[in-house]
């Protein structure tokens, strides 16, 4: 489990999406530097830009459960799962 008071970088392999990995930092509870490997580049850059500096747990709450078409998950949902795993949510 990550401490919210420290700065940590995380990398998580995604599952069930076009993207294969998501990386980000959590600094004092806020998310920074989100980047995805593979996937829909424009959409994923948009998500990263909009999410920059927001509270990581609040972001996960907003993104959790979003689906992409008929898939049971999406890149935003995978980001939420990675945040949950990283902060012990």
Core attributes:
3 strands; about 90 residues; 3 helices; alpha+beta; Enolase-like, domain 1; globular; three-stranded antiparallel sheet; disordered N terminus; about 30% strand
Can you give a write-up of this model?
This protein has 89 residues and is of the alpha+beta class. It has a single domain, classed as 2-Layer Sandwich (Enolase-like, domain 1), CATH 3.30.390. It has three helices and three strands; from the N terminus they run βββααα. A three-stranded antiparallel sheet has the order 1-2-3. Strand 2 and strand 3 form a beta hairpin. The longest helix has 13 residues, at 75-87.
Describe the structure concisely.
The chain has 89 residues and is an alpha+beta fold. The protein has a single domain (7-87), classed as Enolase-like, domain 1 (2-Layer Sandwich), CATH 3.30.390. The protein is built from 3 helices and 3 strands.
Written as H for each helix and E for each strand, in order along the chain, the element string is EEEHHH
CATH topology: Enolase-like, domain 1
Assign an overall shape: globular
What is the CATH first-level class name?
A: Alpha Beta
- Tell me about the biggest sheet? 3 strands, antiparallel
Straight-line distance between termini: 9 Å
Spatial strand arrangement across the major sheet = 1-2-3
CA radius of gyration: 12 Å
Mean pLDDT: 92
**Secondary-structure arrangement, i.e. CATH architecture:** 2-Layer Sandwich
């Amino acid at each position: 489990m990550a401490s919210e008071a420290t700065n940590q970088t995380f990398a998580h392999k995604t599952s069930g999406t076009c993207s294969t990995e998501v990386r980000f930092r959590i600094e004092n509870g806020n998310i920074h530097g989100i980047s995805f490997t593979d996937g829909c580049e424009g959409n994923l850059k948009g998500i990263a830009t909009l999410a920059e500096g927001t509270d990581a747990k609040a972001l996960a709450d907003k993104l959790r459960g979003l689906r992409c078409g008929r898939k049971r998950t999406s890149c935003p949902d995978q980001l939420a799962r990675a945040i949950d795993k990283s902060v012990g949510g």
